[in-house]
Structures are given as C-alpha cells and as structure tokens.
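Hey all, sorry for the wall of text incoming. These are the two entities for the joint prediction.
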Amino acid sequence: MADALKANAVVGQSGGPTGVINASLVGVIEEAAKHPDIQNIYGAVHAVAGMVKDEFIDLGRVSRETLDIVAASPSSAIGTSRDKPDAEYCVKILDIFKKRNIRYFFYIGGNDSANTAHILNTMADEAGFDIRAFHVPKTVDNDLLVTDHCPGFGTAAKFEACALMGDDLDNRALPGVKIDVIMGRHAGFLTAAAALGRVRDDDGPHLLYFPERPVSMDKFAADVDAVVGKLGRCVVAVSEGMCDTDGVTWAKKLAENAETDAHGNIQLSGTGALADFLAGQIKEKLKVKRVRADTFGYLQRSFAGLQSDVDAREARRCGQEAVKMAMQHDNGSVAMKRTGNGDNYAVEFFRTDLCNVAEKTKSMPDEFINADGNGVTDAFVEYAMPLVGGLPKTEYLGGRPRV
Amino acid sequence: MADALKANAVVGQSGGPTGVINASLVGVIEEAAKHPDIQNIYGAVHAVAGMVKDEFIDLGRVSRETLDIVAASPSSAIGTSRDKPDAEYCVKILDIFKKRNIRYFFYIGGNDSANTAHILNTMADEAGFDIRAFHVPKTVDNDLLVTDHCPGFGTAAKFEACALMGDDLDNRALPGVKIDVIMGRHAGFLTAAAALGRVRDDDGPHLLYFPERPVSMDKFAADVDAVVGKLGRCVVAVSEGMCDTDGVTWAKKLAENAETDAHGNIQLSGTGALADFLAGQIKEKLKVKRVRADTFGYLQRSFAGLQSDVDAREARRCGQEAVKMAMQHDNGSVAMKRTGNGDNYAVEFFRTDLCNVAEKTKSMPDEFINADGNGVTDAFVEYAMPLVGGLPKTEYLGGRPRV
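and here's what came out:
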C-alpha cells in the first residue's frame, strides 16, 4: 500500500482504436474527479507522442453530457499513436511530468501500452520520481494475458457476428462461396466471434481459420469443396494473420509473390489483397462459379452506433478501477476475472503486475478450436457469447417445404 | 379499374438483397391475407428461377411472430436470382401460373425486375391470360425513376453514414489518408450518403467521388493533396462505378491493367482491388506515409440488426400498397412522392406504369453534387437525411485547446 500523492494525472489512449476505448477514458476521467488527491486530469493528445511534445488538454473541463457521448463514440477521442518509446523518449516524458507535477499515469492500450507503462514506471523509480503507472486493457484482438477478456473485444465480436449473420443470409439468397477476412493479428478470437450468430444447423460461417492452426491452401480448398458439396454454398471466415503449414502468414506469401510478379502501380499488400487472393484460389481450384470475398477493415473497430453494452460497461469500469487502484498501489494493470457465466455472467476487477501483461500475447486456447482446426467449439461460444450483449434475431424462409 | 380476380398470388425477391427487402415481402404477405380474392400467397424460391422450376413455399402459413422477424432480417428471405428471363423463360413461367391458377404477380426488385414484370404482363395479355403484375421497388443504389427514393437506400445510407462517422474518428486518432470504396453501380447516391454523419467543420469524408462526375487520377490526387495540406489528413469516399474523364470506369482500367501485368493466381478484379489501387496511387503520387483503403462490400446491403426505421416502414408499406393496387389495376410499380420534408417528412404512395421504371436508371441530380464534383450539397443532405431515421452522436476531444 502506497502513500497518497497530491498531484496531476495524465491519461492516454494508445495503439489501434476500438469501439469502447473511449468508455475507458471516460471511466478514468469520472473516477479521477472523485479523488481530491488528483488535482487536474490531463489528456495526452496522441498518446506518448503528445506527452513528449507537451500537448495536453484539460479533461476536467469536459461536461458530463459530452463525456457520455464520448463514451458511446468509437475510435480514440484524444488521439492515439503507434510510437514505442525508447529510453530517450521516456526521459523526455518524465521531464514533462516533473514540470507539470504529473504523478498519475493511466495508459489505455494493449500489451505494448502495458510495456510503456512498465518502462516509464521503472525509469521514474530509478530517477527517484514517484509515479503511479496504470495500464487499462483494450484490444479488439483479445490477446492480453491474465484478464479473462479485453475491453474492445465484445464490441468487435458483436460486429463480426452481425456481419456474418447478414452475410450468411446474403449467401443463402445468392448461393456461392463467400470469404471474409477478419482482424485479430496473431490471435483467432475475433474470427471465432464470427460464429456467434449461428442458430440454424446450416448457418454460416461454415469454416473458420485461425492463426493458431496453420493450414495449407490445398486443405483450405478441400474444406470449402466439402461444404459446397453438402450445402451448395459456403461462407468462410479467415483471420488476417492466417499461416500456412510452414508458419509463414498467407498475407506475407501473397505480398512476396506480388512483389515478384507484378509491377507499376498495382498494390498487393493493401487491405483487400488477401481476400481477393483466396477467392482466386477457390475459383481456380474448385471451379465454383460465384466466389466473393470481403475484407472488413477498419469498420470492425470503428463503426458509429455499434457497441456491446456489456463491453462498454466493463470498459468504463476498467478505467474507474485503474484510478481506484492508483490510490493504493504504485503500478499495475487492470484485469477481469469471470465469476459467473451464461445468464449469471459477472466479472470482478483486480490488479495484476504490469510485467504480467507487457509485451506478452495470448492465443486462443485449444479447447476453443475444433479437432479439424476449422471451426469453434461450444466452449468458445460459452466464453464469448456473454460479451457481445445480445444479437438480433433473423429468419430465412427459403428452406421451407415446397408446396 | 379492373374486375376482381379470385386466384392465387406469387411474390418474388429479385436482384441484390437489401436491409429491408424482407419488410416489403412481409408487407405483401400481410396485405394479401386481407383480401379474400387472393387465395394462397406463394413465395417463389430464388425469384424467377424458382417460378420456372415450380419451386414455391406457402407464405400464408408463416406465423405473425416469424413474419416480424423476417421483416427485420437483412437479405432476401425467400432467395433471389439474377436471371433475366427471355421470352422462352416467360412462357414456362406462365405455364406454371396457369397450372397453379396464379394471377397475382408481385416482384420486389430494381429496374430489371420492373422489366420482368412488364414482359410477363405483356406476354400474358397476348396469351389472353389475365394477370395482375406489380413491381415493388428495392435497391440500395436508389437509381429507380419516378419514385422519390427507393426502399433499401435509407438503410444502406445509414450504414455508410455510421461507417464514415467511425472511420473519420479513426482517421483523426491515427491521421493519414483513408479511402473507402462504396456500392451504388452507376449512381452516386450511396457514396453521397457517406457525408450524412458530418457535424463538425472538419469532419470527413472530405472528398466524395461519384460516377456522375468523371475524374482523372491526377485531379483525384491533387484534391487529396489539398485536404492533407490543410488538415493533415483526408478521408475519401469513392463510388465503385467511378469513371475516368474518358468515360471508362476506374475499376475497368485497373482490371485491364492487371490482366496485362500480372499472372498466376493473383486476382485483381476482386472486390478489394480498386481500393488498394487508389491507395497505391496516393502513396506514389503524394508520398503520404499512412494510406489505408477499405472496400465495404456486402456488409453494406446485409448487416444484421441495422435498419433505418423510416426505410423499413416505407418498404413494408410499398409491399402492402402493391397488393392494394392489384385489387384495382392490371399492373404497375409502386412509387413514393415526398409530401413534407425535415421534421415534417412524409410520403404518399402511388402507382406508375411498369414501363416508366423498367430498365431505366436514375443518376444523382446535378443539384446534389458540388461545383468541384467532389462533394455533396445541402440539397442532398436535405433529401437524404430523413431517410436514414436518425444517426448516433459522437464526440472527439483531441482538437480542444491545449493547456
């Protein structure tokens, strides 16, 4: 238990935006206002990039009404950055902190952000400058250690589920092969979430591919062929970080291929390339007439008006808990423990050491992936369903008995 | 005024699905149930393809509860088809109609579907077989003549607006150039709808390109350069049917280029290719570091849980009105006339001749496009805003004064 510190606080949002990272920001702001030891709560504009340039806004002046709108808005409301601060960068930040008497540091982000908090805290310690450094988890990829799940995942998972529910109905109406490439970097959680909207036996996605289960192009095509043979159509969800059996990502193989084969203005490393490449593979190997591919892109993390209410609530709580913890501890990362599931879904919030989260990545557990490596298990659905906060109902009539 | 016909009815859904084509289907079914002259209401599975193969389901047996879920579901609940029936095809359909005593024909679709209804009606007349053929408008492209706007557009417009609101906030948080390729074939309405969520002076999309205003790649790059110079970032919405100044679509130029330059498995005519190509052009011409591109794909027309309530209500009414009209007229297409705007927005439904809608395409009126050909006017916003049925509020704090 640390002594109270009467000082200013700074909060930053780091890495890729999510649908609820602003809810965490608002959680930090509103909780900070309750603690007299925290004098001003500054927002670092564009995260560490703003800290190093002394670019701050006064978040204590933002009205309650505006904060509620911020909490419901996608993206990072005070700007973000992908900078990874080195020692020199951190010295500059600590100089600014000293100048402004900033001793509370709240950083909302993924494992890199936890690492930044860890480094800053260690350097401040070494300099004899007492700070409280707290990491607030966020990532659509759901790939942080310790916590049961990450704020941001539930909302992105809801997007994937709604997208695939619509896409599967579309594919029933105009049958063929449909391939959707989904975010998640080296973790398959978000791609797996594409299966959450399935209710009918033949609902898609019929096949799902995760970075945790490398697959050859031949196996991929054979899987699709089998589904088309059975249903006359096939909807596939593919992780952007999908690997071949030699461990090289499909996207990388494609990019290398493109650099060798094409020239001029044609870009193959862009966002749509993997989906188009896979569609081409299926067209070539299977001679299926109608093959379509989509890459969901940034819509997955920043779509206005779409939030999982469970996710938004938890994200806000994570921000609040970080401030509460900072009143008693030197540093840490906020994590969630699931204390009930299904209809009794509930979480508790707890502190873990920064080094437990910093720079580490969680993969999908084996129990969430089916034996064939191309689908999810009931265990995954039980894990992820409470996080999306409900899904719409849909109906398809075309399968009814003919008269 | 035609005499009453005691017979069966068929309804079909044709062409690309939308978010509310099922609302129109339900409108037809529930209104048909009110008219004793309509005995059974059959659903043609996969539109004309089902009619010609005698594949029907009995829609009169679907429960009220299920119908309400159908009306809220995206895609075409009884399947659709892109078949364009020729004379021989129509003869087969009429034979099936005779066999089943089908004399009411309701076809939900775009201008091709209006044409199918027109052809069937003409051929039935010539054969002395009295049918009532009605077209119910639907298209996300909003490109049908006569009607003020098309069911399906408002929901897709809401998707674009929410997508660009999120994307613009994302681009504020991580500045760069972002290009979004949007559906709409040869009409720019849907791309224009991407501007509906703008509220702040510097909100994106900052540039919009429509098929109605051909643009050279140099002008495109110069426009982006000017916005980047002013704001340090730029969000661009581009119609998939965008043309160069020689009248050739950008997508076609790219595809030709790809066929010449690349070989093997690389597909450039897939959905992501145009967006990636444009991103490549900007990277090359402007030396902007961060350039991203997304192609929204099928999410735009089939995303579960996203409807404009105005659009869903009007789509359902269009289905109902078609049945009412069929009680009194031989044929026609349902159209909407706007009788009030803004807070007093309202429409009236009326019948127009099939030939007024069949095979014809509406472009965006000049008054909706700005003088530079790269943005929308207030007149467009006044026209389209009532159709999306409300948009979420968002806030960005990063532009506030530094402290």
